[in-house]
Amino acid sequence: ISPFGEVKNRLGKNEEMMIDELSKKELSEARSTWGFMQIEAKFKR
Question: CA distances (Å), 7 to each of 25, 35, 39, 41, in order?
Answer without folding.
Answer: 18, 21, 26, 30
